[in-house]
Structures
1.
Amino acid sequence: MQNRIKRYGAIVRLEHWTIALSGIVLIFTGLGCLPLFKRYYITEIPGLKWTADFYTVTKIHYLASIFFVMGVIFHIFFHGLRKDSGLIPGLRDFIDSFKVILSSFGIGGHPPCDKWLPKQKVAYVGIGFTTLLVVTSGFFKV
C-alpha cells in the first residue's frame, strides 16, 4: 500500500462524477429530444413512460447541461489555477503512446510511466476537444 500513488482527491472525484453522470443523462435525454423513444417503444419499458413527454425530457436535458457545463468550467479553472498540467501530453507522450501500442503486439517494451500512462494523456486531450465541441454545439439549436 505504501507504493501506491494517490491520483485524485475528493474534489476531483466529485467533479468527475458530476460531469460523467450529467453526460450520461445528456446522452439519454438528447436521444429523447429527437424523439426516438416513442418510435422505438422505449416508453413501453416500465418506469420510462415519462420519456414520451418531450417537454419533460427537454427540461431534464437542460438541467443536466447546467451541471455538465459548470463541471467543465470548474475543471478548467480548478486545475488551471493549481497549475495541474500532469495530464497535458508532451511530444514524448505521443511517442510513448505509440510504443505502448506496439508493445501490446509484442514489439518492443512498455515505456516506464509515472502517475498516468502516455495513452491516458493523449486520450485526455481527445476527450477535452470532444467536450468543447459538444458544449459549443449545445448552445446552438437547429
2.
Amino acid sequence: IAKAQNVGIEYALNNKFDFVVFVDDDSNLTAEKINQLLANYEVLGKRGNNIAAFCAYPSERGGLDQKRNSILGDSLLLTNNLMSSGSLTRTEVFKHIGLFDEKLFIDFVDYEWGWRALAKKYLIVIDSSVQFEHSLGQGRLGNGLGVPSPVRHFYQTRNLLWILRLQYVPTLWKLKQLFLFPIRFVYFGFIHEQSKERRAYFLKGLAAGFKNKF
C-alpha cells in the first residue's frame, strides 16, 4: 500500500500537481466532496501552509482522536492520528516530510507519516463539515473493537514492534497499545473465530518484529 501511494505522490511531484488526494477502496468520497474539502482548505490561505493533511470526516473513525480548534474554525478539528483516506495534502509538503515508509507495507503507514509530520511542526486537520462513508476492517464487535482479516494480525504485530521504537510516536499511544496488545492476542488468538490461524499470524508477527524482518 505504501509503495503504491508513493508512486502516485512521485507522479504528482514530477508533474507539478498542487495536491494529492487519498481515497481507500472502502471509502466513498465523491468528486463533489473533494471539491468542497479543497475549497475549505483554500479559505485558510496562509494559515494552511503548516497543514500536513486536510481530512474529511469519516463515518468510521477507528483510532482517530480529535479536539476542536477555534483558531482555525468551528468545524475544524485537530488530530494526532492520521487516517489518510479522505484527505488531501499539498505536494510540497512531501518534500519536507518525506514519503510513506514502504517497509511497513500497510498497517500504521498513515499514522507513522502523520507523527513524522507533527514532529516537524505540521498539523493534521479534520474538516467536520465534509463527511464521507468509510468502513474499517471486516466489521466491528459490540465494544467497537475492529475485526481484521487473520493475515493483518501479522502486519499489525510486526509493525507495532517497530513503531514502538520511534521517538516521535506519542508516548500515550504507545502505552495504550502495550495495554491493548495482550487483550487482542488473547481474544483473537484463542476466542474469536479462526483463532488458530489468527494466533499463528500473531506469533509470526512477533518473530518478524523482534528480528526486524520486513
3.
Amino acid sequence: MQLFYGVPEDIDKWMNIVTRIRWNFPGLETQEKLDEHRATVLRFMGKRQSICVKEENEIAGVMLFSRGHNMICCLAVSPKYRRRGVASMLMDEALNKLDRTKEISVSTFRADDEKGPAPRALYEKYGFIEDALIEELDYPNQKYVLHPAGAEQKDRQIAVYKMVREISYIFLIANRQFICMAHLL
C-alpha cells in the first residue's frame, strides 16, 4: 500500500468509500450533502490537503486536513482495509504536514457513541486528548487536541478532564441512587 495526495482523477473512487460508509458521517445522509462533500474534497485536493492510501488501483483510505485550521477534517477507511495500518499511514502523513508547534485538533464521536471506540483509540494513540463536547451538524461530538510537545497546558488539561470525568461519574451514581430511593418512597 502506498500513500498519495488526492487528485481530481481519484474523486469517484474517493466518494465511493465515503458513500459506502456515510452512515458513519453525520451530515451526509442525502445526495445533496454528498454532492457538497464531493465539492469540498475537490477544493482540498486543489490545496494538496487531501491524502489517500492506495493498494494497486483501489483506494483503501482517505483523509482531509487543513493547514489553515491545523486540524484533521475527515478520515475514512474502507471496511475491507481496516486494521491493516491504513489509518495510521494517513495520520502519520497529516501530522507531518500540520504545524506541530501549535495545537492540532480533530472532531470525533463521544465516548458513549457506538461509533466512537476505534477513532478515539486511534487519536489517543497519537497523543490526542479529550477536549470540549461539541455538536456538529446536529450530532454530538467531542473535540480532541494534540498539544505541542512539552506544553504545560496539556498536563493541566489532562488533570482537569480526569477530575471532570470523576465528578460526572459521582453525580451519575448519586442521581441513580436518588431515583431508586424515590421509587421506594
